[in-house]
Amino acid sequence: MKARKMGETRIIQNDQVLINDLNNYHTLFGGVLMKKLDACATLSACSHARVKECVTASTDSVNFIEPIRQSDKVCIESFVTYTGKSSMEIFCKVIAEDMLTGERRIATTAFLTFVALDENKKPIEVPAIIAETEEEKFLFNTGEERAKIRKLKRQQNKDIVAHLSIKKPWN
C-alpha cells in the first residue's frame, strides 16, 4: 500500500457564522463547531483511505482557544496527521477572520480518530502518511505520543464502562 502525502488529505471549508449558530454570549456554539469539525475530518479520512465510509472512533481533544463571533468568517482545515493499521488521526485547525477588519486568529484546534471501513463495515488497513511542511512534520513527529495517550484513555474508558450500571435511575 503506497503512503500518501498529508496535503492530499487536506480539506478546507469556509463558512459564515449565522445568527442561529450563536449561543447566549453571541459566540458560535461549541456543538455547532464540533459538527463542522467532524464533517470536515470525515472527508479527510475518506480521502486518505479512499473508501466511502469512515467512522469517528473518538474525538480526542477540542481546544476552544478564541471565541468566534457573528462578524467572523470561519475557515476549517483538516488533514490526516498520523496513521495506525486501520485508524487515522485527523487534525483540525479553525481560523476565525473578522470580516470587517481582516484580523485572523486561531480559534480552535482538535484531534479526532477515524477508522476506515470496507463494504461489510469491517476495519481495513490504511496507507501510511507522509509529512512535507514544517507544520505537518511537527504534527507527525508528535503523533506517536498522542497515539499512546489515546490507547491509555481507551483502556481507562473500558474500565469505567465495566463499572457502570444500565439500571434506569428513576426506578
Give descriptors for this structure:
5-stranded antiparallel β-sheet; 171 residues; 3 helices; two-stranded parallel ribbon; alpha+beta; 35% strand; 28% helix
Explain what the structure shows.
Helix content is 28%, strand content 35%. The chain has helices at residues 30-49, 134-141, 143-162; strands at residues 4-5, 11-16, 53-64, 72-83, 87-98, 104-117, 129-130. By secondary structure, it is of the alpha+beta class. It has three helices and seven strands. It has a five-stranded antiparallel beta sheet. A two-stranded parallel ribbon has the order 1-7. The N and C termini lie far apart (54 Å). A hairpin with a 3-residue loop joins strand 4 (72-83) and strand 5 (87-98).
The general outline is globular
Rounded to the nearest angstrom, the radius of gyration is 18 Å
Q: What's the total number of strands? A: 7
Biggest sheet, in brief? 5 strands, antiparallel
Number of helices: 3
Strand order of the largest sheet: 2-4-5-6-3
Beta-strand residue percentage: 35-45%
**Helix-strand string:** EEHEEEEEHH
- Uncertain residue ranges: none
What is the percent of helical residues?
A: 25-40%
Structural class comes to: alpha+beta
Distance between the termini: 54 Å
**Average pLDDT taken over every residue:** 96
